[in-house]
Amino acid sequence: MKSLVLLFQQGQFASPKRPEQSFSIETFREECRRQEIAGSQEVYLQVVYHVPHFIVLPKDIDACAVYQHHFPEIKNEDIACAQLSDKLQKIAYPKEAALEQVAKEMLPHHQLLADAYLLLNYAIKKSRKQKLLLLHRVADDLQVILAQNGQLLFANSFKAANNIEAQYFIAAVAQEYGPVENVLFGGDPALENVIKEHFKHISRFSIPEEIQEFLHCQSQLL
Questions:
Q1: Is 30 left (phi over 0), alpha (psi -120 to 50) or beta?
Q2: Where in the chain are the domains?
Q3: What is the pLDDT of residues 70-117, one digit of tens each?
Q4: What is the pLDDT of residues 135-158, one digit of tens each?
Q5: DSSP codes, 98-141
Q6: 116-219 under CATH 3.30.420.260, yes or no
Q7: What is the pTM of this model?
């Protein structure tokens, strides 16, 4: 079966190889028809999409119900839940209705993955031998994940419209959880200047450039 991997953000698709060149949902439909893969049983579509917020809870708690309590404007049927690779916790996050509709319409074999879900599993895997802080900023959304020995210590998302606001949340995590051996950041490059004020060992990651590794970190759950 042929694999097709795409990114989806703010209503636009993009290829991981060219994330700066986005295209609309309608263009995606047209391309599926033009390439004669619409409705195909031989194509497996995976789409990684950005979520503005998420919650992580122990696996025995109804994460979707808790999520709806915090975000009552989102209906229960529009909330997704998934177990994390530590098998101890799960994540709840909003579905992307327009994305779900076009995926079902064009390609019956598909998987829609929230970026936060991939980042959490990635952090769990990468922290097995060290304490790891993962920071990811998309537009005004700052995702903060701290893990150690393969276990999550902290995971949340914040609204940070500028570097000053981002610095506030990063400084709070640094003060609360102490030294971190490895800090990974992705998304907005300007975030690096903020991080340097609090941490020494900093590396950059990119979901588009490392998409296969991110997908591999969650594939073990399937």
A1: alpha
A2: 2-51+96-114, 55-94, 116-219
A3: 999 998 889 999 999 998 999 999 999 999 999 999 999 999 999 999
A4: 999 989 999 999 999 999 999 999
A5: HHHHHHHHH-SSEEEEEHHHHHHHHHHHHTSSS-EEEEEEETTE
A6: yes
A7: 0.91
